[in-house]
Amino acid sequence: MADEVPKTSEMVKIDHAPPSTGWMDTPVVIRKGIYSYPAKKPTLDYLSMPFGREWSPLDADWKLPPNWLDILLEGMRERIDRFRSFRLFMDICVRCGACADKCHYFIGTGDPKNMPVLRAELLRSVYRKEFTLAGKLMGKMVGARQMTAEVLKEWWYYFFQCSECRRCSVFCPYGIDTAEITIIGRELLNLLGLNIDWIAQPAANCFRTGNHLGIQPHAFKDMLDFFVDDTENITGVRVNPTYNRKGAEILFVTPSGDVFADPGTYTAMGYLILFHYLESLGFDVTWSTYASEGGNFGFFTSHEMMKRLNAKMYAEAKRLKVKWILGGECGHMWRVIHQYMDTMNGPADHLETPVSPITGTRFTNAATTKMVHITEFTADLIRNGKLKLDKSRNDNLNVTFHDSCNPARGMGLLDEPRYVIQNVCNTFHEMPESTIREQTFCCGSGSGLNAGENLELRFRGGMPRANAVKHVHEKHGVNMLACVCAIDRAVLPPLMDYWVPGVGVTGVHELVGNALILPGEKKRTTDLRGEDLPGVEEED
Amino acid sequence: MDAIGFFRDRKKEVLSKWRDAVFASYPPERTQFLKTKNDPFGNPVGHQINEGLAGILDYLLGEAGEEDCAGDVKAGVSRFLDAILRIRAVQDFTASQAVEFLFALKDALRDVADAELEKGHDVPDTRVLDRKVDALALEGFDIYCACREHLYEIRVREVKNLSYLAMKRANLVREIPGLEPSGAAEEE
Lengths: 540, 188
Prior knowledge:
The complex is a heterodimer. Chain A is mainly alpha-helical. Chain A folds into two domains: 23-195, Fumarate Reductase Iron-sulfur Protein, Chain B, domain 2 (Orthogonal Bundle); 201-534, no CATH class. Helices cover 45% and strands 5% of the residues of chain A. Chain A has a four-stranded parallel β-sheet with strand order 2-1-3-4. Chain A has a three-stranded parallel β-sheet with strand order 5-6-7, with helices on both faces. In chain A, helix 15 (332-345) links the parallel strand 3 (324-327) and strand 4 (371-373). By secondary structure, chain B is mainly α. In chain B, 72% of the residues lie in helices and 0% in strands. Chain B has eight helices and no strands. Chain B starts with a helix and ends with a helix. The interface between A and B is large, with 59 and 59 residues.
């Protein structure tokens, strides 16, 4: 009987294991669904970036300039001299592997070159070969290798599979910031015209019109006018935002995603409601149709481009003669402000240390940048009892909070958003400790990787985050994921749709807008999304 | 001898061999991590594969508890298949590679049976289980395809939203008031 069954050895032998070669000898295979489309010539030209051309990552010939190797090595030499951190990070890694399993892309893809240590090693191996004596003499024995066009392709493929979230750096005993290695890697690629379209185009748009989407001032105002109408329909109160108003005390800057992409638009309505509420208490704010973008895709291109795009906010603040800047719910804007702005474009002497006109709180943490995060500002209002809130208007929501990488790890903003949420919602549950606060998992689409063509990469990378959401969804019935980043608000809804259907995504100030009781408002029957408030149906 | 009873007694061995085969379909550096790190949040892929394989084997051997699947054994096993295939649908696998892990279960069953045979023990006919594995594989193909379709639907929706917003931004859109949620509020 048993003889009828063929033995394993007799069956067609299927080898499950992929070829086992060393990482240096495993050539890169560029796959659709993972890479983002290359930057186009007009956008690179517009940004005065070199070597814009038509090329495809799937072609063998990337049409590199003939002297590309000289350009690249000279670029490396320059940056080794310029950035002490870069040289240090190239030298001190002992390859202990503490970072290896901390990257969401590695966890989700299984590709060893997505281990932060190995991703950095792609660059470090060339550094050893070209800039260290041991590497020059002993080559591969000491982990050094020659820079070739194939290695360059590998750099391009993998440096655009790192979202610069810095989770790995939390675990590095030496404090190596792998995001900075990616930043330099991308900067070097940009010397050869090898950016991706999803980064270069928003950067060019921002340079031209002031925001990533290329929205002109009148269209920006039109969109906000829609929200003014919508807000009036829902609350019965007409809010009156002002634009480019000289002499206002505060300039408000938020990512353009809040103005142009759902569900960020509801967060923008939340800002409008809050600002209107505060007006009678002495709050004097203006929006700008020129500094109409908090985000900074220059940050994902080069230090120079980041500086250029960051400068406009401060130039606008100077032009309008405001005292300080209030910043909306944005992710990487805050890392740029907190860690780079002061060195690049500071000191902002034309501004004053921010003081809340309502509570008198002096935000000394923003003494040099002169820019306050809106959840810090709102948390201070709540703590001082300045807001009249009806939490029950969010009773249909069971909320959890996703710490966006940059505000959490880049500026230490951990408690303020939670404090605000818990004061405007009755039901809140934290995700597991190893997936929040400093250890938060990236959305999988940060640092300019939120394109459409790389959806598989985004969903693999977002899987660890979604997995933690799934846990609280199943355990506590969580149905709303709150966050303080416009990229999160754009990319988490599809991520939830795939991994945890039944969980929506919201900005924190959408929740504030729902709960805040405006003087003179009508009885609200819907939330800011136009959905029935809890209990309304029964009343009907 | 009853094949189900035979393998129930040797479930641990079958599961271990099956797991090894599935994890071996990932690069070697990855396999180590997937297998050894037992943390549902730090190693969600490994965790879900482990849970899924055990759940599918329980189903195959008729040991899926009613409480595990709210009385619906079929739905229970689909949930485990979905958990694994949803992950493999976004990893570097072709359709056949993504689903192949189900056929690896046949190898695992035969390996365990062969080992018993070599010891001179009686071994039951495993064909009854082969058919069940085939049925699981077919369902696996359906689930894999559904996951891929889901991906494309999401992508289409993103593109649609973008183009709609572009039109709205250009002031080319006038919505029918009754269709707008805010319009409904206005009528009150």
